[in-house]
Design goal:
The chain has four helices and six strands, in the order βαββαβαββα. The protein is an alpha/beta fold and 140 residues long. The protein has one domain (3-138): Flavodoxin domain (Rossmann fold, 3-Layer(aba) Sandwich), CATH 3.40.50.360. Strands 1, 2, 3, 4, 5 and 6 form a six-stranded parallel sheet that branches. The chain is globular and about 40 Å long.
Length: 140
């Protein structure tokens, strides 16, 4: 059985809803799934999972949340080489630049992006939830 972690930070609940849909997609395909906030996860746990989905909304000038999520993610980055990961998050402005920058960083780290990242404007609609479930499926 594949072990998948869904690790996220959410200020408004939008990215949390996406995280739950990612987890649902992975569970529906037989994975053992742990849903964790960024405060509950660190680099010591990376090797415990076959795949990890990271979720964070765009903040400020299209950046990752920098007080809790970014320090956790930067701590994990050295362990992401050859790790299957997926990225997701919501935004309220801009054009998704934060996600493109994040994907480039992960690729540079040697991580294996399981599928196309999922972003949505504000609260996830039905299409975004379906895409998040597919994201979870891609990790199994």
């Amino acid at each position: 059985m594949s072990k998948v972690a869904v690790v996220y930070w959410s200020g408004t609940g939008n990215t949390e809803a996406m995280a739950n849909a990612v987890a649902e997609g992975a569970k529906e395909n037989g994975a053992e799934v742990s849903v964790l906030t960024s405060a509950e996860f660190d680099s010591s746990q990376v090797d415990n999972y076959d795949a990890i989905a990271f979720g964070c909304p765009a903040m400020g000038a299209e950046e990752l949340e920098d007080s809790e999520f970014l320090p956790m993610f930067e701590d994990c980055e050295p362990k992401l080489k050859d790790k299957k990961i997926a990225l997701f998050g919501s935004y309220g402005w801009g054009d998704g630049e934060w996600m493109r920058t994040w994907e480039e960083s992960c690729t540079s780290d040697g991580a294996v992006l399981a599928t196309e990242s999922v972003i949505c404007n504000d609260a996830p609609d039905d299409d975004a939830i379906t895409s998040c479930k597919a994201l979870g499926t891609s990790l199994v």
